[in-house]
Amino acid sequence: MIKVKVKETHCTVTDLLPNAQYELWVTATNTTGISPASEKALYMTVPSPPLIKQRECTSCPEAALIRWESGNTNPVDSYTVELSEMGTDGTENAITESVVAVPTCQCLIQLQAGRHYLISVRAVNIGGPSDRSEIITVSTTGTFFYLLEDTAHPCLSISEDGFTIFYGDEELPISAMALDDNTFTRCVAVLGDVIPVRGRHYWEVEVDDGTEFRIGVAYEDTERSSYLGANNTSWCMRHILTPSRHKYEFLHNGWSPDLRITVNPVRIGVALDYKGGTLSFFNVDLDQHLYTFHCHFQNYVYPCFGLDSPGALTVHNSIEAPDYAFI
Known about the structure:
Layout: E1 21-24, E2 41-44, E3 51-52, E4 58-60, E5 63-69, E6 78-85, E7 97-102, E8 106-110, E9 116-125, E10 128-129, E11 136-139, E12 147-148, E13 156-158, E14 164-167, E15 189-192, E16 200-206, E17 213-219, E18 234-241, E19 246-252, E20 267-273, E21 278-283, E22 288-294, E23 301-307, E24 311-316
Antiparallel strand pairs: 1-2, 3-5, 4-5, 5-8, 6-7, 6-9, 9-10, 9-11, 12-15, 13-14, 14-24, 15-23, 16-20, 16-24, 17-18, 17-23, 18-19, 20-21, 21-22
């Protein structure tokens, strides 16, 4: 209990906990003594501002998925997501839109393509809205995502910025090979967290022609003890080094068409079109189409990246898809 003595008929009470309920009452004191307490009033302090999980936010030309943590011990009533468009000069537009009464710690927001937005979140309870969270910038020029580190094989390392994967040639101790149900165990691979919107998505992968790799898409529940492309829940482009040549396969359920690529691509474009039912691969440097899978994706798929030999590859996203990617 906190007691504050004042001579005025008003008082400011400080250092209260956020998102907490307090009972307030007043007594009057003179030389005779202390009066009975007034009727008690209940007051709820506003919540702490949420904490946006920037490494778990994804976007595409049509929408953005924003995820955050509450930052409050007690549950809040709802959240409000605020967004404003950023001008070409980098300043914030005076008009702010709000998505109100969001019940959970994530929100899928419909946006316009080719824009830049400033987005923040407030927590709301009966006492009112919190201060707004730290502001993040979201671009809708292309698809943007991070890698899901909890799916990565133990032999993989991910760069600090979250876009390059490394597979070293040193052996890991058995103690470092502890696995869980979500981790790839055979294929040295990792999934990417693409936004769940059934539109068009495009990203690029920079590779070394001296590294064996697999890139493509997979369902979230793809078998972690299987190789990418070896099952019916993943589709991938595979690069194999043979004594005589570079071999490329386009694998799904263990089958690949017989084709030959004469120029080794070092930057590969991946175009996923849910409505068209296609997954296409391109040599970006040559604007060259390599192969297209035709398939009806019943569920959302995730970008997947694997290394079959020591080396590295880098993911480039938030890129505007070239005109030839979705013809």
